[in-house]
Design goal:
It is built from ten helices and 33 strands. With 669 residues, the chain is an alpha+beta fold. The strands form eight sheets. Strands 14, 15, 16, 17 and 18 form a five-stranded antiparallel sheet that branches. A four-stranded antiparallel sheet has the order 1-21-20-19, with no helix packed on it. α1 (7-44) runs antiparallel to α2 (47-58). It is elongated and about 125 Å long.
Length: 669
């Protein structure tokens, strides 16, 4: 059968083909326009706009990031060469990275990482993006892959080698945890930075901030200025501008104050076309004790023309000024320097702190803790956790030891710098203010770091007074004398040992009880410098064996004490003198003096009070000539009442209580 083609069908087919071809050409032109616009924005550094057009180019005109396979994807019916697609993916990844959006950058770098011949830095940037996302082990592997294929001896290879060490250090530090510390932000919740804390007075903090100033001109809303606040128990309050210090038109902050509070050094700087120019100034407190003089520029001994000089720290003795500078003569970047000062606080000479402290990178923000002879500073030139880390060096001025990283959590995987210690004595990490951007993608903030004191172990022992042999099975109760709270209850082991833990060294009292021995209550004698020790060994407690009673107990009448105290009142002396006469006439008699109380108050308090009263009676008898070895003092507290303390109906029984508050004498064999 012969097929006959209708002319209209032919015309329609040709028209459809023409439309398809026209649409394909239009889509291709549109894709080319997207790519051209993206490349132009990328070259100009407008990465936000570049991202929008790269994504449209890669995703068929949709301004939306999606997973993209450059080897299988088609756009608008036209196959784009894989190399062209990969270049777009690479520049899209670069745009996200340069905007610090590593979440979007990392998967894009992963797509081009294997094409290391075309994109030799792809794996390096992939690794740094993984690191920024906290994927440290993956970042370490990516850097090792990068070094395996990258043969150029340049800054990237050196940086990768250093960063592998940093990543290993991070993983080791984070594995240790931060159980011994508490880190809290103290200046969060505001727009802008807050950093460089300085102890102005014991409870006043001076610091630098770029917080918005509604009264400032439009172009100076976020200028660095000095602020002050009350600092107490890890928190700041009453924040105000430090208006008593005259301010100029430049940025200013990062200050240091002399020990007597009368001299202040601060940094002032300007920024012109991204170029910073910083110098150190000095100000003196006025005679009114409130205002400060207009800051004046230190001379060229410190402020070298054409260089940046900043971040002063005045040593507590007022003789040296530590500072950071990129002046000539250093090891590279910013170095730490030290100027010797005259009695007026003006520099007379300056020296570089040398290669023990400085590196070819940057060292900044010096601080010297005199109590522990420790120099603290920030650097990005040593193995650390990320950006700037805080390091410390033990030694005296001019004689520095090898710097060590403070580790986590003093340092974080972001920038950490500007350190001041509020610790007591040599405890430099007991209470610290530092600056860090660990909680923010923008700026430094003030953080308070406090070291938790480890629990202290208290070790005690009980022995027999006569033989000094350990006594096992002794019931021990320990009470905090200040609070009256029981902190331990237990028994001695086979070696007469008992132990427990407390949060801090505090006055303690122990009560030891064992059948066949007199109950012993006494203060625990802890070693000197107990606050500095983690293990405290108390002086052993000795217990006297009980003696068999052969005669009746005698209540000593008319023996009185001061209310709730152990002091014997004078009207008791006549009755006690009768006891002296009895003991002098019966020289072979040994006696126990027993103290008793009613049941008001705690058992521990009553036991200690009754024993203290018995001891005072024994001391009185000894003072009258009775041999001490014939007498034993023992406190019974409220354990042996001879009359009811309350009546049957539950009402108080004052007469019964009075009978129970007594002193007895037992005749012993």
């Amino acid at each position: 059968m012969q097929l006959i083609h209708h002319p209209k069908s032919v015309i329609l087919s040709v028209a459809v083909a023409a439309c398809i071809l026209s649409g394909t050409m239009a889509s291709a032109q549109l894709a080319a326009d997207y790519r051209k616009a993206a490349d132009n924005y990328f070259k100009r550094g407008d990465y936000s706009s570049a991202i929008s057009y790269y994504e449209k180019y890669l995703n068929g005109g949709k301004a939306k990031q999606a997973e993209f396979d450059p080897y299988t994807s088609k756009m608008a019916g036209k196959q784009v060469p894989p190399s062209d697609k990969l270049q777009a993916v690479y520049q899209l990844a670069e745009s996200w990275r340069l905007l610090k959006n590593y979440t979007n950058a990392a998967p894009l770098y992963a797509q081009i990482a294997d094409d290391y011949n075309t994109y030799p830095l792809g794996r390096y940037h992939y690794a740094t993006s993984l690191r920024a996302l906290g994927k440290y082990s993956e970042a370490e592997k990516a850097l090792k892959d990068f070094l395996a294929t990258y043969t150029t001896e340049d800054q990237y290879k050196k940086a990768a080698q250093r960063e592998i060490l940093n990543l290993q250090f991070i993983q080791e530090q984070l594995g240790r945890g931060a159980a011994a510390y508490v880190v809290q932000p103290v200046s969060g919740g505001r727009t802008g930075a807050s950093y460089a804390p300085v102890q102005l007075t014991p409870d006043t903090l001076l610091f630098t901030a770029t917080w918005p100033d509604s009264s400032a001109p439009a172009n100076k809303v976020h200028v660095n200025r000095l602020y002050k606040a009350v600092f107490s128990e890890g928190a700041i309050a009453g924040v105000t501008r430090a208006n008593e210090i005259p301010s100029g038109q430049m940025h200013e902050g990062v200050a240091s104050v002399s020990a007597d509070g009368n001299t202040l050094y601060l940094t002032r700087w300007s920024v012109n076309k991204d170029k910073k120019s910083a110098s150190i100034y000095i100000s003196k407190k006025s005679t009114d004790g409130v205002k400060w003089s207009n800051p004046s520029l230190l001379d060229t001994i410190v402020n070298t023309p054409g260089s940046n000089t900043q971040q002063p720290f005045l040593t507590p003795d007022g003789k040296h000024l530590l500072y950071a500078s990129d002046r000539p003569g250093g090891l590279g970047g910013y170095d730490l320097w030290m100027a010797e000062l005259d009695v007026q606080g003006k520099p007379v000479s300056t020296v570089n702190l040398g290669n023990v402290i400085n590196t070819s990178f940057n060292e900044q923000a010096p601080y010297y803790h005199a109590a522990s002879s420790t120099l603290v500073f920030a650097t990005d030139g040593r193995t650390g956790m990320g950006g700037y880390d805080l390091f410390y060096s033990k030694g005296a001025i001019g004689y520095w030891g090898q710097p060590e990283n403070f580790g986590y959590p003093v340092n974080s995987v972001k920038d950490d710098m500007y350190f001041v210690s509020y610790g007591k004595g040599k405890k430099i990490l007991e209470s610290v203010l530092l600056s860090s951007d660990r909680a923010d993608v923008c700026c430094l903030e003030l953080f308070h770091l406090a070291k938790k004191d480890p629990l202290k172990q208290v070790i005690g022992q009980v022995v027999a007074c006569d033989t000094k042999t350990p006594l096992p099975g002794v019931a021990i109760t320990v009470v905090d004398i200040a609070s009256g709270k029981q902190v331990y209850s237990g028994a001695t082991d086979a070696d007469g040992i008992y132990s427990f833990t407390i949060e801090s060294a505090t006055p303690l009292s122990s009560v030891a009880t064992l059948k066949g021995y007199y109950t012993t209550s006494q203060s625990m004698q802890l070693p000197d410098a107990a606050d500095e020790l983690d293990s405290l060994v108390s002086t052993p407690v000795c217990m006297q064996k009980e003696v068999v009673v052969t005669e009746n107990i005698t209540v000593l009448r008319n023996v009185y004490y001061e209310f709730a105290k152990a002091d014997i009142r004078p009207e008791s002396f006549a009755s006690l003198d009768d006891v002296v006469d009895f003991l002098k006439k019966n020289t072979d008699v040994k006696a126990e003096i027993g103290g008793h109380t009613d049941n008001k108050g705690s058992d521990e308090l009553n036991l200690r009070l009754s024993e203290a009263r018995a001891v005072n009676v024994v001391n009185y008898l000894v003072s009258k000539g009775i041999e001490k070895n014939r007498l034993i003092a023992k406190g019974y507290g409220a354990t042996q009442p001879i009359a009811p303390n309350v009546n049957e109906d539950g009402s108080d029984n004052p007469e019964g209580r009075e009978k129970n508050r007594r002193t007895e004498m037992k005749i012993l064999k």
